Amino acid sequence: MNRPFRALPLLALLAIAGTASADVLLIERAQAQQESALPARGMRMADVEARFGAPSQRLDPRGGQKQQWPTINRWVYPAFTVYFERDRVVDAVLNQAASNEVGPKPAIR
């Protein structure tokens, strides 16, 4: 086999790898921006309110019907929603990243 043709598969692989790594960096940068602006897992309700202020809505708690099902509280802020198990943050999600993006479904009330 001729030497230039041996290098073609390697060049194709490098081109694909370069594109994929750029996508990963963009995703990692977006995640880092989101995490810095959201409450961290394990924060207490009082700490969230002290750092981010009072929520615009405190939705009715869900769950808790059985001992195995903890009560989940949800606080809605303009940019994100925080989910608490009892008084600790278990997750926080952005409501809508941009005005042209479809956000999560409205909360069940």
Describe it.
With 109 residues, this protein is α+β, with helices and mostly antiparallel strands. Helices cover 39% and strands 22% of the residues. The protein contains 2 helices and 4 strands. It has a 4-stranded antiparallel beta sheet, with no helix packed on it. A hairpin with a 3-residue loop joins strand 2 and strand 3. It is elongated. About 6% of the residues have low confidence.
Summarize the structure.
The chain has 109 residues and is α+β, with helices and mostly antiparallel strands. Helices cover 39% and strands 22% of the residues.
Largest sheet: 4 strands, antiparallel
Gyration radius, to the nearest Å?
A: 22 Å
- Number of beta-strand segments: 4
Structural category is alpha+beta
Percent helix: 25-40%
Low-confidence stretches: 21-26
Helix count, DSSP H or I runs of 4 or more residues? 2
Order of helices and strands: HHEEEE
Oligomer: single chain
User: Any idea what the shape is?
Assistant: elongated
The largest beta-sheet arranges its strands as 1-2-3-4
Strand content: 15-25%
Averaged pLDDT:
76
Termini separation comes to 68 Å
